[in-house]
């Protein structure tokens, strides 16, 4: 139920794609599994989640927190996908430990991948022309669990040598999504 702010910035170079200036683009936002092992069983994992939480969705749009969003849609059969024109604040309604083997996964939990695919309108008014895809890895925990995880991760990192610390990415307030080819 925690909302995450996502901002889409237009970072085109001057003169690039002038045909979309002043036009809407459609973005499809998905939460998928990051682990390849779970990607192979994603359909079964999502069906199991649906069975345990009837009527719930994995991903929603926080409409009151969203700015400039038009035509938000959530397909009832795709619990992990929403689409909209422009951009919004999504809400992830599952936690990473719901997909671990043990019911009480503790600080473990499966990593998810947030992916945003953006499309422009074609001549017949359908948003089918792919413009861009970007993603990043996330783990979702309940607030107290997230605080505990951050604390233990910080403590573990403090114990590492400077050489070991070089192997890890630094922590940031915001995450830049990586372009997907």
Brief overview, please?
Keywords: DNA-binding, Nucleus. Strand 3 and strand 4 form a beta hairpin.
Contiguous low-pLDDT stretches (5 residues minimum) are: none
Count of helical stretches: 4
Q: How many beta strands in the DSSP annotation?
A: 8
Structural class by SSE content: alpha+beta
Largest sheet composition? 6 strands, antiparallel
> Kindly, what is the distance between the CA atoms of the first and last residues, rounded to a whole number of angstroms?
31 Å
Rg, alpha carbons: 18 Å
Strand content: 25-35%
* Helix-strand topology string: EHHEEEEEEHHE
Rounded average pLDDT? 82
Q: Give the % helix.
A: 10-25%
* Number of spatially distinct domains: 1
| Adjacency order of strands in the biggest sheet | 3-4-1-6-7-8
Overall geometric form: globular
Subcellular location: Nucleus
Keywords: DNA-binding, Nucleus
Region (Disordered): 142-181
Protein name: TFCP2 factor
